[in-house]
Amino acid sequence: MPEQTWFILSITPVQEFVGQARRTRDLWAGSYLLSWLSAQAMAAVKKAGGEIVMPQVDDDPMIRLLIHGNGVTPPVVGSLPNQFTARLPAGVGPEICREAVQRAWRKLAEAVWCKFVEPVRKLSNFPDLSAVWTQQIKGFWEIAWVVVPPVDGEDERQTLKRAGDLLRRRKLWRSHLLPDEYATLGREGGDHCQLMPDWRELSGYARASHADAQDAFWGSIRDQIGMILGHNAIELAQGERLCAPALVKRLFPTLPACALKNAIDWVPGNDSGRIRSWPSTRYMAVLPWLRRVANKPFIDRFLDLVGNDFQTESGSAAHLASDLGEIGRLDGNLFDRDALRNTKDFPIANDDAGDRRRKLEAARAELVTAAGIGEPATHYALLLMDGDRIGEALAQAGPRAIATLFETFGAQVTQTIRRHDGICIYAGGDDVLALLSVPDAVTCARELRQHWMKAAGEAMGEGSRPTISAAVIFAEATVPLRLVLARAHEVLDGVAKNGNGRDSLAADIIRGGDFTRSWVSQWDAPGVEAFAGFASGQHAPLAASSGLLHAIGGRFGAPVLDLFADGGHDDDFERLLAQAHLRNRSRDLPAMDAPGGDLSEEERLKIAREEIRPLVALLREVPGGAGARRDRPRLNPDAALFLRFFARQSVGGSRSQVLIPDVADTGDGR
Q: What range(s) does the GGDEF domain occupy (predicted)?
């Protein structure tokens, strides 16, 4: 019998659990809970005398807290993956990991049950709501592992590769089945959860026939939340009905500090208030505008009208680098014209709600006029990053080199995102999930990629180094988070990795659930720098007009674009765009106002080419990956859609003032 047992273990669901989110805090809570449960499993291995081989976790704060009980500040951001490889002493099996995870999960669920659900359990239509709760909690997580038998002459790198292969095969053999709630609860056992539709919501009533009783149950849950927090509007929205796992995910951050510490062994950041309040998607959208008006004298009138109401973002500013002052405490919906008019997105709970709303709308319009920088933006950015072919790098360089890469890179992630006024949702190993404002997202992604490449060079020397890919989704603040995250995974895997060969940045725009055609290019291509410049406002909007492509498409037609489609003629293409740019400018401006009016035609063309050069770079998509033909980048006219978008979303680029024509139909269906 071997002295040690090798095994690889995973905890699922992951993407579904994280993505089943109505609000920003749900996104964080899902990621944090998964890291915390992984920490429970890893700590069980170490307490049994075993070793975590991959990833290296000895310095991880969650592991140190679970093993030693103190010595570090409890982390606010999760950093442990849902999968790990470990060794256990002979006679000890991986079952100890499953027991540790289930025990911790039950303890946390019990804390949420006792505070919020148990006092109102008799209002449920289920004869025994406690049994329903227990069944849903017990059956939620799938914890799968594979014991890796020893092979003579095999080194550690080969064993790790074989472990990964075995786990992938194990996942094809699904042995975890959700409880049959139709069998145990009956077909009349209420509606399905609105976040996790595989489970029943807890009232046990069907809305079609017992809406009042259903509302009474969930109204009582909201009252329980209000008794603890003093407010409840954003913790559980009107009409929101959840199952046990979704309610644990939603409400565990609102537990009193003593109850939270007893449930998970610490309070993240030693500040329970900080994890209760996370910037909303609307807040992240209007953040660049808030930075421009914060602490200015003209905001005082607006602050006086709002008073102590609508300060639902009071803790949001703590997650950001900017000092926004008093205006940073206000609900982000106050600054958006359409959101303020929407009674569902922005409810006002008093008898004169209509008059109050009209006064707020008038005050907001006055504030926008006083600021003089146009309307706040409507979109924010979600950034998702993932290392490329890490398994191959692990087999080549070994676990210690990869662990060093992950540790060095991970130490830079949270502070880099914060420096760009973003919020880090998860940063573990080669994975990053963050929310940022539109102007900051691409610049932040590029800086993170630079940190990755530097860390890879230090960890792996002159040999082959793993790359990293990213997806940036510019999403309207009203689009459900689960759709945005799902699209981010599609763009990362399908466009940046499989479509463009990896080592790439891909982007997409979501408006009301509709997607644009994605943009993608290899990180070092000139187009990525141009893309970041347009997004941040570094490049002037005059070169961003999609009317240039409109002119080319309308004047010369699709054959011209086809001529430049495969690269190799960028000098001619640049000249053609510059000439179109000059024609547009001379048409739109009087001769005396046109820049360079006293210059020769050739001199004006030279200036125009310099102005148009970032646009030419952006229109070229360079493939990534080893062996790619980067000397013949593809032409993507749809890139102009992003320029139009950036112009409208920029501070000073009011949605009501910026009129940039659509890209012409080029005849190829784009």
A: 378-510
